[in-house]
Write a structure and sequence with these properties.
Elements: E1 3-7, E2 10-13, E3 18-25, E4 33-39, E5 46-52, E6 55-58, E7 66-71, E8 76-81, E9 90-97, E10 106-107, E11 111-116
Parallel strand pairs: 2-11
Antiparallel strand pairs: 1-3, 3-8, 4-5, 4-9, 5-6, 7-8, 9-10, 9-11
Length: 117
């Protein structure tokens, strides 16, 4: 059973940058697709970005501002966020998808990112 733990959230001013980290334990994630999702207050959880053997994908709202990366040797995934906007305020979740799974099936507990204007 893979466990995911996010870190790096906090308060940041609009226009600033922040890097989120996600460490996996209980198994290797090297063959997994990894992703970041977020949920703002009163809204549904939404896709932010993903990375897999096929490449990376980004939501239009973060394209050009956010970058996902991974370090398989460390079993970690990162989300570099720059030019942050107040509308990026949300709880950010790390997620993992096994190769045979149809959807992301492991989730972290989330880390809060608050962007002040």
């Amino acid at each position: 059973q893979v466990k995911l733990v996010e870190s790096g959230g906090g308060l940041v001013q609009a226009g600033g940058s922040r890097r989120l980290s996600c460490v996996a334990s209980g198994g290797t994630i090297s063959t997994f697709a990894m992703g970041w999702f977020r949920q703002a207050p009163g809204k549904e959880r939404e896709f932010v970005t993903s990375i897999s053997s096929s490449g990376t994908g980004y939501a239009d709202s973060v394209k050009g501002r956010f970058t996902i990366s991974r370090d398989n040797a460390k079993n970690m995934v990162y989300l570099q966020m720059s030019r942050l906007k107040p509308e990026d305020t949300a709880v950010y979740y790390c997620a993992a998808k096994r190769p045979e799974a149809l959807r992301f099936d492991y989730w972290g507990q989330g880390t809060q990112v608050t962007v002040s204007s």
